[in-house]
Amino acid sequence: MILPFKRYSPLVLSLSGCYQKDTFDSKVIIRPGTKGFTHEVQIRGHGEGRGNIHNTFDWEIHHWDHSYWLYVNNIEGAVAANDLVLTSYWRCVESPWSYSNVKGHIEFQPGKVIVAIDLPRYSGTANYNQETKEWDTQAALIGHAPLDANGTYTIASVADQPWKPTAEEAKTLEVAPCKR
Fold it and tell me: How far is Cα 44 from Cα 42, in angstroms, rounded to an integer?
C-alpha cells in the first residue's frame, strides 16, 4: 500500500527546506547625501537562504549582502516617513527605485538611530511603464508590514565625505537602474 504523502514527498521536501533569513549590522555610518538630501544612512544586511523556484532540488545554502539606504535632511530628533526616502539602491532616490506609501519614522538620538518603518503591502499586480515613467497598477493597498531592518543601531561615525565603494564593496551593491 502506498501512503498518499509518499507521492508528494518531493514537493513537501522542497517546500519545507526553503528559507530566507536576514541579519543586520549593529552599526551604521552617516554620510553626505545626494540629490537634495543632506545625509544618507546605510543599514547593511546579510542574507542567507536555501531554495530555488527554478530548481526544486537545489539544497545549496546561498549567502548575500544587501543594504537599505535612508536619505534625510535632518539627523536630529524624529524624521517622519514622508520626510525621508528609503531605497535598496545606493543613491537611487527617485521613483520607482525608492519605496512609496511608507509609514513610521526614524529617530536620531545621541549615538544611535532608531528605525521604525512600515512598508506597504499590495494585492494584485503593478508594472512600471517606461514611456510614461509611471506605475500601471491593478494593485490595491491592503496594509503595511514592519521593515525587516527595524531596530536600534549605533552610529559608528558621521562622515564628511561621500562614500566611494571599493571594488569589493561595489560587488555587494544592488545593480542600480538609476543614474548615480
Answer: 6
Contact 56, 13 (CB under 8 A): no
**Residue pair 30/158 in contact by the 8 Å Cβ criterion:** yes
pLDDT, tens digit, for every residue of 122-147? Answer: 887 667 777 877 776 677 788 999 99
Look at phi and psi of residue 8 and say left if phi exceeds 0, alpha if psi is from -120 to 50, else beta.
Answer: alpha
Please say whether the beta carbons of 26 and 153 come within 8 A.
yes
Q: What is the distance between the alpha carbons of residues 44 and 21, in angstroms, rounded to a whole number?
A: 14
Q: How far apart are CA 67 and CA 145, in angstroms?
A: 18
CA distance 10 to 5: 10
